[in-house]
Structures are given as structure tokens and as C-alpha cells.
Automatic annotation (TrEMBL):
Residues 511-594 form the AMP-binding enzyme C-terminal domain. GO terms for molecular function: ATP binding; propionate-CoA ligase activity. This is Propionate--CoA ligase. Residues 4-58 form the Acetyl-coenzyme A synthetase N-terminal domain. Residues 64-443 form the AMP-dependent synthetase/ligase domain. It comes from Caballeronia zhejiangensis. The keyword Membrane applies. Belongs to the ATP-dependent AMP-binding enzyme family. PROSITE patterns: AMP_BINDING (PS00455). Gene3D superfamilies: 3.30.300.30, N-terminal domain of ligase-like. Coiled coil: none annotated. The gene is prpE.
Length: 630
């Protein structure tokens, strides 16, 4: 076994040889002629000429050896439904869905917009698209009509697949009126909408464009739809980024490179073996869902657990109950879910047998030390932070325990993954940073397999957005700050646009947040820059206290504000001191746990926050509004 360092060096110095070996992990109907076409930087084409199919690799390929193994365990605590599907059953369901799509005239290259809650049909629909060569574009079921309309106009789908309703924490959300509104807002005319009827919505919309799935499924019950063999570089899907920092970008992914990268990551990073069970508690609307609920575990022959519900219903032990019951080996979620669980009674975890669980993976936002400590000591299993983006498709920084058992370092997701030629660069000069020096996390050309090919229908936006922001260097910018230590471990320090300029001093809002969080009374905090006529910008802090009542007594609020300002003064200097401290009881976040700094800053400056991503709780944004009114 090569060490991490050896394997990594080879993946960078000899990418063709390295990835040609990895490519053996999947089935190629036609072998590729070239591993890498680097004739048109920054575009990279992997496994040129090779023909394969994601659905074949995720489903059909396993029929010979594991037809009776569970492919999917579906659990909904919203509807009480728990169901297992073997690979043979999954194969049948995907064929039915593929036949239905074909009967609705969906062809290779057409887009299918999937606007579904976490139901098995969502997985069937994605795999059916892959099977017939249609490009899926999954839109998170929590998005409102205007967001959906924008994605319809960008993707121009031949078909939308939706359901009568989603459910969240016991509340039913009717989908058809949302789809109907989105269709009338969108300029692009979608010919038809396939409706999965869960019998949840009290009032179902009647519209001529709605086609019911169930009768068609019956009609095509015994259908067999052959896989469309696609050239490795044909698009498999378009997925929009969260939109935390601006207008969402349609991330376009290929077929062959994605399959190879995911298969490799399952061994190198996740150590998932065929027959293992993986529970990724995320949503199919996010990249984590695409890669680690659906494609990677199935390509690698695992059983994947798909969950509809929250982590605390019927109680905070539900996820641990699932670990025991389904003998889950690998779990993957976001730190935000762990923070929710941390507030639960620890007895709820101790009640269950967690001996099957090997590792918990966390990604999507910074993993703060208290949360990392808590979950590690509660679970007594390795907790692996990993850092990536919708754009990269799989972790670009992690601990590659499948290659070498490197130790974890608190505060760092780990070291660069195979093929990610990662360098921290000085934002002003583009020069590589020395160890310990803060810089922008960048990737050199070519991006490894599995990363975005381009922005959907906008090659120029791909080049201009990602490859032109670092001076004197044509490198991919992640737009995240980081610092790398002597051993190669990278810590992520926040986003580049979280930097504010106060009277000529450049300050990271994340540093100010950390200074404030260090105060024992503080539970959570968000700092944004707001326009200031004198200083250019000033910092505004939104603070959630552990005990909200603490500031109710006369003068207590002012006292707390002074204490917090003092904390910042003493750690970063008076220049970083927030101009205002606002107290709220919750912060506006996306459903995937990301702080909505852009929206908070817009409100603080009296601007329209624009298109909002999915919000965990709209009440939080109201609180920010109210706090600003005070
Ligand atoms: P947009 O690019 O549209 O503004 P977004 O960046 O929020 O949206 P995602 O691709 O979902 O969309 O999120 C990726 C970002 O999440 C990373 O760039 C980084 O800022 C953050 N992130 C992900 N994982 C980690 C992690 N382990 N530690 C710290 N930050 C992380
Ligand atoms: Mg981003």
C-alpha cells in the first residue's frame, strides 16, 4: 500500500496513470481512448471515447452478484412508511420509471426537472434519467415558486416530476400549487408534469398538464428499457449551487468521470465496501444527496438508507434507532444536524446498540470544536469532517483513511484528496502561501474526475467565475479562505466574500464571529458588513444567547453588548469591534445549515435580500428584521 503522500503525488504528477487505474472500478461498455484531454483549459475531459452509464453501474451491474441484497432502505417518519428494495426490485422500479418517461417522449439529452420530497420515486426518477441519457436537474423540495421558476427557465426541462406533497415535522406542504405558480411565472413552457400521488395533499390541483404516475407505472410494469451508453463526457445532470453568495450556478457534471471519482472516494475516504449500509442524512436536492445517498453507495454495491423526516421526530433517538435496526455502518450528515441532536437528552443515544457504526462523516459548513468534541465523545467513533462544494462533486479535503490511517486534527477537515492539486494563494499577488499563511483555497488545472464540467449552457460564466479571480494565475478558486500547516492539513476559515473593509482594514467576519463565540454566554453568532458613511463598512453582529432571558433585566442588554465588544477588542483590536450587536433567538440559515449572511447584510443595509435559498425557519429572518428596527 502506498502512503497517502505517495498516492497523492502520483495522482498529481501522473494523473493519466492514476485515474486509468481507478477507472477499472466501473463498467465501460466501450473502453476509453484517452484518459484526459487537456487541449482546452480550463475545460478537462476525462476518459474520452469511453462509453458507460451511471444507472448500469449503480443497478444492473450488481444483479449478477447481489440481486437479493437490499439496495435501498426507505424510512419516512413523516408518513410512517419503512420499506426495503433489493437491487432486483430497484432495477424493476427504475425500468418502469424509465419506460414512463420514454412514453412521455423524454429523449437522450432532454432535461427532466425533479421537484420531489424524499420518496423512493425520487431515486427511481434520477436513475431512470441516467438510464435513458436524460439530464436530471433536481430542485430541492423546499424551494418556493419563484426559485423553481428561475430553475425551469435555466434548465428548460421536457418534463417535471413532482408529487402531490412533501411533509416536514408533521406539516404537509402541497407541491402542485407551487409547481403551478412556478409554471405560470416561468417564460419557458414545460409541456407536462408527472405526478407521484402520495395521497397526502388535502387539495390536489387539477390541471391538464398533470399526468398521473401510478396508472402509467402499471402499464409499464414489466418494461425493460436498455441503458443508453453515453460517451464519458456527455452531461449526466445539472445541479444548482445553494446560492449562499449570489445567483445560483448550474453545475454540470459528466458521466464517466463522476462514476470513477465516486467509486474511488467510497474506498479512499468512506471505506465503504459492497454489502455495507450507508445512511446519508441529507436531501436529494443537495450535492451530498446526489453523490452519497444515490450514486456512490449504489455504484459501490452498498445499501443506501433514504430518510424523510427531521432528526428529532418522533424523538431525538430516531437516527440511532435506525443505526441499530438496519445495522448502519457509515453515516454522513451536516454539523447543523449534530447541533440539533446535541440539545437532546443523551439517554436517547445510549438506548441503542451502535456497534455496527464505524464512522460518522460531516460536511457542508465549518465543524466547530464544541460540536466535534461532543459528538466524538458521545459516539466514541471517528468523526470525519470533509470539505467540498457542489462544484467538486466529492470531498476535496478529507482524511483518506482508506489509503492511510492519518490522524485527524481538530479544526481541520484534513488533507487534499486524490487529484485535487490544491494550493493556498495570496489574494493580492496570486503567489502560493507559506505554511501557516492565510490564503484562498485554489485548485490547479485540471480538476480531477467528478468535478463540474462547466456552468450549464454558459462556458463563459464557468471561465469568468471560477478561473479568473486569482491574479496572475489561471487556477480554480473555491472562494473560501484557508490555511495549511506543515503537514499539509488545511483549515477552512470562511468565505472570501465574508471579508469586510473597515476604515481600510480588511477583516474576516468569521474571525469576529469566533471572538464573539468564545464568550460563554453566546450560543451562535453571525457577523456581516454593512455600509458605513465614515468607515466604508462596519461590522454588525447578530447574537443568539444560550439563555435569552439574561438580557431582560434593566441595563443587562447594554452590559452584555459591552462585554461582547470587549471580547472582540481584546482578541482582534478595537477596529474589529461591531458597530451594533443585535440579540435574536435564532439565525437565518438554509435547510443545509449555511448562514444566510448575504440576506442578513442586505436587510441590515435596507436592501431587498433578493432570491433566498431554502430557509430553515422563516421566523429567523423576521427576527433579524425586527432586531434592525429596534
Ligand atoms: P453558492 O456557491 O451558490 O453561494 P454555496 O457555496 O453555499 O452556494 P455549496 O456548494 O452547497 O453552495 O456549499 C459549498 C461551501 O460550503 C464551501 O465552499 C464552503 O464554504 C462550505 N463548506 C462545505 N464543507 C465545509 C467544511 N467541511 N468546512 C467548512 N466549510 C465547508
Ligand atoms: Mg459556493
Amino acid at each position: 500500500m502506498p502512503t497517502y503522500r505517495e498516492a497523492y503525488r502520483r495522482s498529481i504528477d501522473e494523473p493519466e496513470a492514476f485515474w486509468a487505474e481507478q477507472a477499472r472500478r466501473i463498467h465501460w461498455q466501450t473502453p476509453f481512448e484517452r484518459v484526459l484531454d487537456r487541449s482546452k483549459p480550463p475545460f478537462a475531459r476525462w476518459f474520452v471515447g469511453g462509453k458507460t452509464n451511471l444507472c448500469h453501474n449503480a443497478v444492473d451491474r450488481h444483479l449478477a452478484s447481489r440481486a437479493q441484497q437490499d439496495a435501498l432502505v426507505y424510512v419516512s417518519t413523516e408518513t410512517g412508511i419503512e420499506r426495503r428494495y433489493t437491487y432486483a426490485e430497484l432495477h424493476a422500479e427504475v425500468n418502469r420509471m424509465a419506460a414512463v418517461m420514454r412514453s412521455l417522449h423524454v429523449k437522450k439529452g432532454d432535461r427532466v426537472l425533479i421537484y420531489l420530497p424524499m420518496i423512493p420515486e425520487a431515486l427511481f426518477a434520477m436513475l431512470a434519467c441516467a438510464r435513458i441519457g436524460a439530464i436530471h436537474s433536481v430542485v430541492f423540495g423546499g424551494f418556493a415558486a419563484p426559485n423553481l421558476a428561475a430553475r425551469i427557465d435555466d434548465a428548460e426541462p421536457a418534463l417535471i416530476v413532482t408529487a402531490d406533497a412533501g411533509a416536514r415535522a408533521g406539516k404537509v406542504i402541497d407541491y402542485t400549487p407551487l409547481v403551478d405558480e412556478a409554471l405560470s411565472r416561468a417564460e419557458y413552457k414545460v409541456p407536462q408534469v408527472l405526478l407521484i400521488d402520495r395521497q397526502l395533499a388535502p387539495e390536489r390541483l387539477q390541471a391538464s398538464y398533470l399526468v398521473a404516475y401510478e396508472p402509467l407505472r402499471e402499464q409499464f410494469f414489466d418494461a425493460h428499457v436498455p441503458c443508453e451508453w453515453l460517451e464519458s463526457n456527455e452531461p449526466s445532470y445539472v445541479l444548482y449551487t445553494s446560492g449562499t453568495t449570489g445567483r445560483p450556478k448550474g453545475v454540470q457534471r459528466d458521466v464517466g468521470g463522476y462514476a470513477v471519482a465516486l467509486a474511488a472516494s467510497m474506498e479512499h475516504i468512506f471505506q465503504g465496501a459492497p454489502g455495507d449500509t450507508m445512511f446519508t442524512a441529507s436531501d436529494i436536492g443537495w450535492v451530498v444527496g446526489h453523490s452519497y445517498i444515490i450514486y456512490a453507495p449504489l455504484i459501490a454495491g452498498l445499501t443506501t438508507v433514504m430518510y424523510e423526516g427531521t432528526p428529532i421526530r418522533p424523538d431525538g433517538g430516531i437516527w440511532w434507532r435506525l443505526v441499530q435496526q438496519y445495522k448502519i455502518n457509515l453515516m454522513f450528515t451536516a454539523p447543523t444536524a449534530i447541533r440539533v441532536l446535541k440539545k437532546q437528552d443523551p439517554a436517547l443515544m445510549e438506548k441503542y446498540d451502535l456497534s455496527s457504526l464505524r464512522t460518522l462523516f460531516l460536511a457542508g459548513e465549518p465543524l466547530d470544536e464544541p460540536t466535534a468534541h461532543w459528538i466524538q465523545s458521545a459516539l466514541k467513533k471517528p468523526v470525519i469532517d470533509n470539505y467540498w462544494q457542489t462544484e467538486t462533486g466529492w470531498p476535496m479535503i478529507a482524511i483518506p483513511r482508506g489509503i492511510e490511517e492519518l490522524p485527524s486534527k481538530l479544526g481541520s477537515p484534513g488533507v487534499p484528496s486524490m487529484g485535487f492539486n490544491l494550493t493556498l494563494r495570496n489574494e493580492a499577488t496570486g503567489d502560493a502561501c507559506a505554511p501557516g499563511e492565510k490564503g484562498v483555497v485554489t485548485l490547479a488545472y485540471p480538476l480531477p474526475p467528478g468535478c463540474m464540467q462547466t456552468v450549464w449552457r454558459d462556458d463563459q460564466r464557468f471561465v469568468d467565475t471560477y478561473w479568473k479571480s486569482v491574479p496572475n494565475q489561471m487556477v480554480y478558486s473555491t472562494f473560501d479562505w484557508g490555511v495549511q500547516d506543515e503537514d499539509g492539513y488545511v483549515s477552512i476559515l470562511g468565505r472570501t466574500d465574508d471579508v469586510i473593509n473597515v476604515a481600510g482594514h480588511r477583516l474576516g467576519t468569521r474571525e469576529i464571529e469566533e471572538a464573539l463565540s468564545a464568550h460563554p454566554a453566546v450560543a451562535e453568532v453571525a457577523v456581516v458588513g454593512i455600509a458605513d458613511s465614515v468607515k466604508g463598512q462596519a461590522a454588525a453582529a447578530f447574537v443568539v444567547l444560550r439563555d435569552a432571558d439574561r438580557i431582560n433585566a434593566p441595563g443587562a442588554r447594554e452590559g452584555m453588548e459591552a462585554e461582547l465588544c470587549h471580547a472582540v477588542d481584546s482578541q482582534l483590536g478595537a477596529i474589529a469591534r461591531p458597530a451594533r450587536v443585535h440579540f435574536v433567538t435564532m439565525l437565518p440559515k438554509t435547510r443545509s445549515g449555511k448562514l444566510l449572511r448575504r440576506a442578513i447584510a442586505a436587510l441590515a443595509e435596507g436592501r431587498d435580500p433578493g432570491e433566498l435559498p431554502t430557509i430553515e425557519d422563516p421566523g429567523a429572518l423576521m427576527q433579524v428584521r425586527e432586531a434592525l428596527g429596534n
